[in-house]
Structures are given as C-alpha cells and as structure tokens.
Design brief:
The complex is a heterodimer of chains A (about 280) and B (about 280). By secondary structure, chain A is mainly alpha-helical. Chain A contains eleven helices and no strands. In chain B, helix 4 crosses helix 5 and helix 5 packs parallel to helix 6. The chains are: A mainly alpha (about 280), B alpha/beta (about 280).
C-alpha cells in the first residue's frame, strides 16, 4: 500500500469511482407491450362497468332514503334473528372443522417432497385449485340442489371452500418446513408417515393454526351470504327483510352480523397470539 | 489408486496434489474385518461437477475413523452416499454386510435403521420436547403414533428414551422444547436420539462444528465415549484436526473427491494432516 502511494504524484487527483447503474432497468419490448395492454384493459373495464359520477350523484338520494328507513333498527324479531345467527355460526364452525379435517390429507398429497408420486401431487393440487376457484355461492347452489334447502347445504359449501383455502396454505406450510428433521428421520429408516407426523406437521403447526383461524373468520362471513340461495342461516332472513322493504329489520340483521364477525375476528386474533 | 484391501494401509496422494510433506507412517490394516467397504465410489452432480472420484475405503468393526478435507472435498457427500441419502453414480458400498447400491427401498430402510446419523445442525424438531426428539430414534425399528410423540409411547419406550437422555446428562430437561435448548444441549439430544436407535454404525457430519470449542470438545468426548462403550463403529468428519486425531483410530484425508491420506491417528501429527487442505 505504501509502495502504491509512493509511486503516485503527490498532486494527482484520486481515481474517480465508477458511476452507479441506472435507477430503473430498461424493460424489454414484450414486457412494455404487456404493461400498456394491462393499463388499457383496466381503462376499458372501468368504462364498461357503467360507473359514473353522474349516476352516483343520482343514486345518492336513494341511498340516504334507505339509510333513513334503516334507523332506528327494529328489534321486534330479535329472538328469531339471533337464533338464525347462531345457526349461521354453527354452519361456519362445522363446515370449517370438516374442511380442515379433509384438507390435511389432501395437503400432504399436494405437498412437494411429501407426495408419493408426481401424478398424485398434480392431481391433488388441481383438486384444491378447483375447490378454491369455484365461489362458495356456486357450491351452495350445487349443494342446495343435491341435499335440499337448509344448513346442511351451507355446511357442505363451507367445507369445500375451506378445503380449497386450507389445502393450499397447509401444503405450502409443509413445503416451507426445515428439511433437516425430515432428513434425520429418513436417514435412520423412518417411514414416510412417521416423518410427516413427527417432523413436518409439528413444524407446520403454527401455520396450520393461523390458517384455520383465518378460515373460520372467512367462513363466518361467507355463511351469512349462503342463506341468500337457501343454504341456511341468517342470509335468508336478510333477503326476506330486503324483499319486503323492512330495512329497519335488515339493519338489525346487518348489525348483529357485524357483531358476530367482530367477535370471531377478535377471538381468533387472541387465540393466534396465545397459541402461536 | 486409493487404499487397497491388503494387509497394510498406505498413505495415498492424488497425482496432482502430492504434498512435499513427510508421509504418514504406514500402519497395520485396522480393517481386516471391515463393516464398511467402499470401492471406486463416484458421484457427480449434473454430470459435470465431480464430487467423488473413485473412493476406496475400508472401515473395521468398532473403529473410529475421522474424515478430514477442505470444504467441497466431498466429505458430506461421501457420508450421505453411504446410506444413499445421496445416490452415488458408480462403485460399490458394502455396509454391515449389505450391498448398499443393490438394496430395494424396504431393505434400504432396514439397513438405515442400523446406521445412526448425527448432523452438524442437530436436525431436531424444534417445537417438540427433548424426550420426544429422542423417542424419534425408535422410528428406526417401530412405526405408528406410539413413536411420534412421547405422550403416546409405551412405558418401555419412554423409559429407554429417558435412559438415553440420562446417558447424555439431560434427563432433567426432558420436557423442554428443542428450540429452547443451547447448541450443546441440542447436539446431546441428537446423540441420545442416535443411541435410542441402537445402531451398529454411526455416521457424524461435523457433529460439533456449530458449537464453541469448549462445548464442542465436551460433546465430542461424550459422543465417542458412549459409542465406544457400546462398541459402535464411527465415521465422522471434522475440520478440527486436533479432535480428528484425538477421537479417532484412523484419519482419512479427502482432496477433490479422492482419498489422499489414510493414516493411524496415534502416529499422525497435525502438521501432516494440514497438507490435505493445500
């Protein structure tokens, strides 16, 4: 170092450091075309939705009229509404529990590294994607036709929706676990089942609990809507109230639903912080 | 070109890496009755990265063998190839009288059940207790929920697991979660899990590399002592040349996937072993 310093003239300017690279990379032509196409599609979608300031302004008096009729809420039917709300929550709990139960084996089959065969892996992944992509309302319609009106159809719809939701996240949680304990049990000749239940699932358990609680929150919200198509619960009460223009009763239902969802979310958050 | 299966073991050096240092003194073959025989073992990744280039090795019953070499020399790959956690490309391995390369899945599991494996990172299940982690060692010979969690286990299995924990001095923290243990305690639990397995041959991949020097020495001392008490053969890797000499009967040096050193530990000097890292 001293030698280098000695070889340089005393008044020589220090070497200029290299300039930093550009802030943004130049997009390739294909990416640029795709960005422009995506932006154009968003604009066309907004245009075709028929939404406009003028239309919104015209609707404001109706909104204020409905809100005016909603308050004060009508408590006359508080008893039956509370019963329906409880039935709705029971649907959510039963459907979520069944969904979690069935999603675990499916998630194992859909988990890279745990699935016994690539064909099984892709089949399980496809099934989970199918369950997830079909909306719960469609499932409710399907089960109303299959098993008839009532909470059974709603419970089944929630179950299938939960399998789609939990199946995916359970599989990803298991894939993300540390492979070390798995390797340790494989190295000593442990069985695949033993390895899954004693090395993978315990590691993925916090994520399982988290996903299950989120799933319960989601099911509670969706169980309210399922009644609209006759799948049991408070949804049918809400539909009747709206159809009969008894907005004050509808307001009571909406407030109670809000309360239920709030309680479930708070309880779920508390459990998450305690268990995980 | 590497160690032959003759009565003596010669130190062998790769053609290009032959060091100028004095060669280790030839010793009598400790492997006259080998429990592990490796011949011309090769392993490459993607067909181009050659990790093992024709390994020949014998390991005798009850022997403790240290495997040394720089990072990337092929030590960990060799250990994993022994029980086919990594599939070798060629050559043959006879371990505990079984041709490892020819075994089907079921037979391979049976062989693995007799081979303990201790890892550098302990590989315990973090959310489970020390006792349950030790109990997992019984999965080598048993299956089902009774060896998944200590709560489900039979009294005899729980008793044996406690005995193994006691041997490593941790019976008082049996119900402490693995993620709450220190590095040294974790590795002791991993050793207890290996003892639970009742292995005939133990492979250890840098078992104390993640521990501080004092804890590492203590754990290594305990580990080797326990295996010697049970007459178990040990093959371990280490970057700590002092420990490699102290805790082994023989030191094997690997350079670029070839055995370039094979000498008796009692007559080895650290300065000689350092040539393996050149």
């Amino acid at each position: 170092m001293n030698n280098i310093a000695a070889n340089q003239p005393r008044d020589a300017a220090p070497p200029k450091p290299p300039s930093p690279p550009g802030r943004f990379g130049r997009p390739n032509p294909l990416a640029f075309v795709l960005y422009v196409a995506a932006a154009a599609f968003v604009l066309v979608a907004l245009q075709n939705s028929g939404l406009s300031i003028e239309r919104l302004a015209r609707g404001l008096p109706s909104i204020s009229r409905i809100l005016g009729q909603m308050f004060p809420p009508n408590m006359e039917r508080l008893g039956p509404i509370t019963f329906s709300l409880f039935e709705t929550f029971q649907m959510a709990v039963a459907g979520t529990a069944l969904g979690i139960l069935f999603s675990l084996p499916l998630a194992i089959l859909a988990s890279r590294g745990l699935s016994p065969h690539p064909a099984v892996y892709y089949a399980a992944r496809s099934l989970i994607s199918f369950f997830r992509t079909v909306p719960d309302l469609i499932w409710a319609l399907f089960f109303v036709i299959a098993v008839g009106l009532g909470p059974a159809a709603g419970t089944l719809a929630i179950m299938v929706d939960t399998i789609g939701f939990c199946g995916r996240f359970f599989a990803e949680a298991m894939e993300d676990t540390d492979t070390g304990p798995r390797e340790a049990l494989t190295a000593i000749g442990g069985s695949r089942t033993g390895m899954i239940f004693s090395a993978v699932i315990p590691q993925a358990m916090p994520s399982f609990i988290n996903t299950s609680l989120f799933s319960l929150e989601k099911s509670t919200r969706s169980s309210v809507v399922l009644g609209l198509v006759g799948a049991g619960g408070i949804g049918i009460e809400l539909k009747v109230a709206m159809d009969l223009f008894t907005y004050d009763i509808a307001c009571t239902i909406i407030l109670l639903v809000f309360l239920l969802v709030l309680v479930v979310e708070q309880a779920s958050g508390y459990l998450r912080s305690k268990i995980i | 070109m590497a160690t032959s299966n003759t009565a003596t073991v010669q130190p062998v050096y790769g053609e290009s890496q032959a060091p100028a240092a004095p060669r280790p003194v030839p010793v009598a073959d400790l492997s006259a009755d080998p429990v592990c025989t490796i011949r011309n073992l090769t392993k490459s990744f993607s067909g181009t990265t050659h990790i093992l280039r024709g390994i020949d090795l014998n390991i005798g019953q009850g022997e403790s063998v240290a495997l040394i070499g720089s990072n990337g020399a092929g030590k960990s790959t060799l250990l994993r190839c022994l029980v086919r956690l990594i599939e070798p490309n060629g050559g043959s391995i006879h371990l505990l009288d079984r041709p490892v390369m020819e075994l089907g899945n079921r037979q391979l599991r049976r062989l693995r059940s007799q081979v303990g494996f201790v890892f550098q990172r302990h590989n315990l299940v973090p959310r489970l207790t020390a006792l349950t982690n030790v109990l997992h060692g019984a999965q080598a010979t048993q299956s089902g929920p009774r060896v998944w969690y200590q709560s489900f286990a039979s009294s005899e299995t729980r008793q044996h697991a406690m005995h193994c924990l006691d041997r490593v001095g941790l019976s008082d923290i049996a119900l402490r979660r693995a993620d709450q243990l220190s590095g040294g305690q974790s590795q002791r639990v991993a050793i207890a899990r290996t003892l639970m397995q009742k292995p005939k041959f133990v492979i250890a991949d840098e078992p104390v590399a993640s521990l501080d020097p004092v804890a590492g020495l203590e754990v290594m001392d305990l580990f080797v002592q326990l295996l010697r008490e049970d007459g178990i053969t040990l093959l371990f890797t280490s970057h700590h040349l002092g420990q490699a000499i102290e805790f082994s009967d023989r030191v094997i040096g690997l350079q670029a996937g070839q055995v370039t050193l094979n000498c008796q530990s009692a007559k080895a000097h650290i300065s000689e072993l350092q040539h393996v890292y050149e």
